[in-house]
């Protein structure tokens, strides 16, 4: 185990102090990433604490292969979620993980809260806290532009929050290096509650390896596999936006708040059309040749783009990153089919620091709630949400972020909270209080999202087993067993903080080989056992904080919409949930 990876930086914002602890046993047992972060969360997070309390911890972790092997450049953030009241787990690309690794830390633990806005500067030998009052109210792109030029370090990364985080919107995100995101579950609100505007990580130009004589040869082998892998090519070509037409053809593309599983204007919002209309250039994370980050340029002829409000609307000509999920959430789900208009909505979320998927779910619910008379013009401050009305949606986003009245404050707490207050639970599309990703492939996706520790499709790839089930007879119990296995293995992969897109390239055998190259010896069985232990830790934290899987409800809309295999059967769903609970209980 590399000694530098075992260093943990502890930060107390109340006392304005930092200290370093060396914890080799923690990293030996848990590798890094989600393994280390989940263990620290259990150690540092008091039971039943308010997620926005000064005592609630915020944890970041990197992994042992970062800076050495390709497509190992993610970072994990872990916290108690203000959106769900239990586990907060988020991943971001960009330079953050690499800079953290190069600064010779394996993790950062932040507790306390400042009276004034601050920024944390992370350096190998002199991490410190600085006043950031001049940055408060500014959008993440502005913050990065002000901080980065003053930093003299070969590897540097800036993560910051926007107004949504400052105002503690429950699904506020943190933006990393302009185009990366710690999205989902409200990390931005946790930072805002601590008055932590930004974190700047300053690293050296390489990983301080002790000895890894085989790493160069293994790195070359893995790089060749990634470059040649057919599965990686779509990410560099159209990106995940390629999913639009494929899902529509499958009958698994939810539109207009999951009222249909196809979209009649899918061609307009396809990856192909985005590439034709808005794509300007592509970018990559450090050490990756795939260039999966697709950047679209807003149409400068549109007068709306000339608005300028600090922390809100960007100057003309800014590039906005896009991929399938925000295209779904702020386009297809709201019946917005013009790529430039979709990009306007994505860009607004970026600049305010909002999770795009939850924002789309809230706006879709509000549109139906307004149609059904559950909220009226008094609640919406005179705005009339209707499908496809981008200007109204943009104003509503601003009102949500500024908590302009009781209704918008309810929306700022998430779609489940808004429906709890005003009604419309049947079409408030969330599972475990987190909004659903843009698939409706079948049981695997719905059950997979519900049982997943962070209620994300990325936790167990349930949508993939659904597609296999279309051509092969798979029993519901077998789908559940697939989900369990995928969760456990992805927890291993996420302990290395690998890019999710490369998970099929990094086989179990190849990961064992890569770890051995940096003097970390584990068999496949030992790694799977680690993954299962992480799954149980995450589930334990959720249950400790009040989550009960057996009591979770599924919105009626998800039982009415046609999937590729027809409507989902509630009895089958309950059978699958019971099977999942039994497997996890038996593993304890």
Describe the structure.
The protein has 588 residues and is an alpha+beta fold. Among the domains are: 4-203, Aldehyde ferredoxin oxidoreductase, N-terminal domain (Aldehyde Ferredoxin Oxidoreductase,  A, domain 1, 4-Layer Sandwich); 229-431, Aldehyde Ferredoxin Oxidoreductase Protein, subunit A, domain 2 (Orthogonal Bundle), CATH 1.10.569. Helix content is 41%, strand content 14%. A 6-stranded mixed beta sheet has the order 2-1-6-3-4-5, sandwiched between helices. Strands 8-7-12-9-10-11 form a 6-stranded mixed beta sheet. A 3-stranded antiparallel beta sheet has the order 13-14-15.
The low-confidence parts are 300-316
| Backbone structural class | alpha+beta
Task: Look at the structure and name the CATH superfamily of the domain at 229-431.
Answer: Aldehyde Ferredoxin Oxidoreductase Protein, subunit A, domain 2
The radius of gyration computed from the alpha-carbon positions, rounded to a whole number of angstroms, is 22 Å
- Distance separating the two termini: 28 Å
Strand order of the largest sheet: 2-1-6-3-4-5
Oligomeric state of shown chains: single chain
**Got a strand count?**
17
CATH topology of the domain at 229-431: Aldehyde Ferredoxin Oxidoreductase Protein, subunit A, domain 2
């Amino acid at each position: 185990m590399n000694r530098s990876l075992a260093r943990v930086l502890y930060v107390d914002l109340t006392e304005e102090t930092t200290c370093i602890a060396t914890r080799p046993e923690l990293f030996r047992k848990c590798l890094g990433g989600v393994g280390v972060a989940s263990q620290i969360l259990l150690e540092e997070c008091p039971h039943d604490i308010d997620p926005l309390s000064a005592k609630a911890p915020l944890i970041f972790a990197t992994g042992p292969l970062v800076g050495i092997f390709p497509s190992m450049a993610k970072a994990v953030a872990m916290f108690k979620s203000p959106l769900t009241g239990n586990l907060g787990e988020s991943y971001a690309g960009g330079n953050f993980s690499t800079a953290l690794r190069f600064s010779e830390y394996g993790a950062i633990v932040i507790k306390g809260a400042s009276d004034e806005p601050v920024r944390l500067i992370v350096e190998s030998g002199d991490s410190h806290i600085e006043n950031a009052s001049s940055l408060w109210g500014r959008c993440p792109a502005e913050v990065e532009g002000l901080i980065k030029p003053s930093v003299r370090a070969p590897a540097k990364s800036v993560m910051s929050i926007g107004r949504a985080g400052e105002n503690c919107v429950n699904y506020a995100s943190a933006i990393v290096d302009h185009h990366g995101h710690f999205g989902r579950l409200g990390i931005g609100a946790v930072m805002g509650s601590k008055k932590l505007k930004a974190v700047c990580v300053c690293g050296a130009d390489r990983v301080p390896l002790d000895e890894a004589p085989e790493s160069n040869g293994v790195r070359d082998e893995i790089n060749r596999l990634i470059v040649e892998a057919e599965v990686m090519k779509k990410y560099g070509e159209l990106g995940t936006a390629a999913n639009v037409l494929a899902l529509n053809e499958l009958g698994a593309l939810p539109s207009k708040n999951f009222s249909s599983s196809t979209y009649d204007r899918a061609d307009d919002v396809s990856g192909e059309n985005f590439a034709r209309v808005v794509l300007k250039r592509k970018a990559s994370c450090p050490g990756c040749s795939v260039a999966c980050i697709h950047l679209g340029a807003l149409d400068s002829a549109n007068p709306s783009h000339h608005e300028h409000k600090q922390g809100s609307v960007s100057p003309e000509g800014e590039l906005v990153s896009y991929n399938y999920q925000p295209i779904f959430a702020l386009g297809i789900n709201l019946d917005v089919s013009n790529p430039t208009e979709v990009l306007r909505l994505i860009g607004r979320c970026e600049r305010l620091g909002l999770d795009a998927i939850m924002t789309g779910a809230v706006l879709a619910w509000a549109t139906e709630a307004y149609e059904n008379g559950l909220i009226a013009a008094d609640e919406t401050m005179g705005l009339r949400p209707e499908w496809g009305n981008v200007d109204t949606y943009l104003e509503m986003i601003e009102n949500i972020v500024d908590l302009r009245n009781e209704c918008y404050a309810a929306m700022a707490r998430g779609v489940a909270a808004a429906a709890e207050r005003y009604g419309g639970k049947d079409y408030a599309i969330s599972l475990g209080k987190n909004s659903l990703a843009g698939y409706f492939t079948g049981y695997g996706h719905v059950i997979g999202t519900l049982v997943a520790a962070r209620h994300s499709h990325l936790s167990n790839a349930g949508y993939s087993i659904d597609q296999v089930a279309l051509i092969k007879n798979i029993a519901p119990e077998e789908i559940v067993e697939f989900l369990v296995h995928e969760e456990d293995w992805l927890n291993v992969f996420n302990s290395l903080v690998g890019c999710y897109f490369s998970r099929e390239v990094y086989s179990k055998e190849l990961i064992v080989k890569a770890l051995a190259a940096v003097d970390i010896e584990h068999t496949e069985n030992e790694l799977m056992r680690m993954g299962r232990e992480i799954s149980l830790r995450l589930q334990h934290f959720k249950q400790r904080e009040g989550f009960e899987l057996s009591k979770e409800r599924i919105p009626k809309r998800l039982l009415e919409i046609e999937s590729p295999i027809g409507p989902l059967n509630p009895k089958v769903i309950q059978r699958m949930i019971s099977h999942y609970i039994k497997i996890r209980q038996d593993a304890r």
